[in-house]
């Protein structure tokens, strides 16, 4: 296996390959052959999915200076090292399905980065330097342990697709609504209780998914003309704990939906709506008399029943 790996890398070096596939090799360490001598100066795309890597070499940028895409999906990497920030030409970085706990601030130096995938890791936070990624179009940080989004995320002015499903978010920062290019926002399976009222105001935002946020009970009005996913939102009502209300007319009894709940008790005295309105008018009329204002024109137009009540 080792000799076959060395041969594959040697051929890539001699023939100046731009793509190198090292998937499913059961690699536990970054191959030394890749870092030998001058490295692979012409390599642009490196695929190392489904291995057992735990870290990246500190000199990766020196040996692979023209790397544009790096795929490290399904390894055991715990920390994204500082050296990653020196891959100045990198446009796509996939670190999904690893054991990531820390993303170093140097990731903000990847000014050409367009697609960043960090799904299925153990991240509790992301550095604010993520906001320095001005060319970033796709950010997938789903299935982590995030309690909040990066502070400067709203500065990623090119961001179009943001996926933060299955985290521990309680709220969405209002400045997220400032993202001018955001087209799709997915926040399903979090702990959201409310959304910013401005969310959806941007014409670019067309798709919003907030499914399975059981504490979320309402949506901003701007989202009503968008494509929305909101199944499983709102705490389920336990019908057994709610007394069903009803009204009767002769032999007919109609039960109201369980969502309609009683307020107060049966002994509470509730004034009819018409009487409440008359009392308000009576109070307004007498206050106007004290102020020296006569509502003569209003009385002329008022119904007889109202006039009788006001003159009492």
UniProtKB/TrEMBL annotation:
<dbReference type="InterPro" id="IPR001611">
    <property type="entry name" value="Leu-rich_rpt"/>
</dbReference>
<dbReference type="Pfam" id="PF23598">
    <property type="entry name" value="LRR_14"/>
</dbReference>
<dbReference type="InterPro" id="IPR003591">
    <property type="entry name" value="Leu-rich_rpt_typical-subtyp"/>
</dbReference>
<dbReference type="InterPro" id="IPR055414">
    <property type="entry name" value="LRR_R13L4/SHOC2-like"/>
</dbReference>
<feature type="domain" description="Disease resistance R13L4/SHOC-2-like LRR">
    <location>
        <begin position="102"/>
        <end position="189"/>
    </location>
</feature>
<dbReference type="Pfam" id="PF13855">
    <property type="entry name" value="LRR_8"/>
</dbReference>
<keyword id="KW-0677">Repeat</keyword>
<keyword id="KW-0433">Leucine-rich repeat</keyword>
<dbReference type="InterPro" id="IPR032675">
    <property type="entry name" value="LRR_dom_sf"/>
</dbReference>
<dbReference type="InterPro" id="IPR050216">
    <property type="entry name" value="LRR_domain-containing"/>
</dbReference>
<protein>
    <submittedName>
        <fullName>Leucine rich repeat containing 28</fullName>
    </submittedName>
</protein>
<dbReference type="GO" id="GO:0005737">
    <property type="term" value="C:cytoplasm"/>
</dbReference>
């Amino acid at each position: 296996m080792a000799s076959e790996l060395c041969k594959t890398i040697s051929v890539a070096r001699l023939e100046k390959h731009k793509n190198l596939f090292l998937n499913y090799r059961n690699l536990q360490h970054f191959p030394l052959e890749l870092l030998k001598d001058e490295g692979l100066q012409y390599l642009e795309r490196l695929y190392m999915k489904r291995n057992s890597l735990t870290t990246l070499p500190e000199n990766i940028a020196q040996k692979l200076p023209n790397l544009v895409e790096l795929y490290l999906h399904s390894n055991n990497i715990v920390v994204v090292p500082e050296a990653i920030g020196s891959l100045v030409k990198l446009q796509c970085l996939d670190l999904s399905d690893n054991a990531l706990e820390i993303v170093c601030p140097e990731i903000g130096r990847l000014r050409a980065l367009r697609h960043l995938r960090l799904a299925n890791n153990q991240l509790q936070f992301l550095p604010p330097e993520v906001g320095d990624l001005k060319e970033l179009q796709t950010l997938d940080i789903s299935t982590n342990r995030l309690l909040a989004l990066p502070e400067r995320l709203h500065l990623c002015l090119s961001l179009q697709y943001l996926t933060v499903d299955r985290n521990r978010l309680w709220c969405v920062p209002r400045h997220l609504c400032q993202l001018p290019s955001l087209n799709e926002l997915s926040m399903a399976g979090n702990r959201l209780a409310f959304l910013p009222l401005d969310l959806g105001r941007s014409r670019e935002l067309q798709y919003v998914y907030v499914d399975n946020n059981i504490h979320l009970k309402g949506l901003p009005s701007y989202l009503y003309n968008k494509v929305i996913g909101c199944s499983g939102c709102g705490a389920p009502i336990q019908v057994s704990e709610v007394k069903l209300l009803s009204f009767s007319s002769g032999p007919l009894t109609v039960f109201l939906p369980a969502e309609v709940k009683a307020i107060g008790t049966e002994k509470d005295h509730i004034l009819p709506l018409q009487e409440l309105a008359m009392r308000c008018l009576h109070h307004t009329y007498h206050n106007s008399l004290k102020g020296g204002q006569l509502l003569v024109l209003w009385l002329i137009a008022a119904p007889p029943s109202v006039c009788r009540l006001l003159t009492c």
